[in-house]
Amino acid sequence: MIRLAIVGTNWITDQFVEAALKTEKYQLVGVYSRSLDKAREFAEKYESPALYNDFDIFAQCSSFDTVYIASPNSLHAPQAIKLLESGKHVICEKPLAANDVLAKTMYQTALNKQVILFEAFMSPHTPNFKLLKQHCNNIGKIRKALITYCQYSSRYPKYLAGEMPNTFNPEFANGSIMDIGYYCVGSAVELFGEPLSVKAQAQLLDSGVDGSGSIILGYDGFEVVLQHSKTSDSYLPSEIQGEEGALLMEMISTGRKLTKITKGSVGIDLTVKQDPNPMYYEALVFAEQYAQNQIDEACMKRSLIVAKLLTEIRQQTGVKFPTDV
Question: Which of 36, 141, 230, 248 falls between 20 and 30 A from 26, CA-CA?
Answer without folding.
Answer: 36
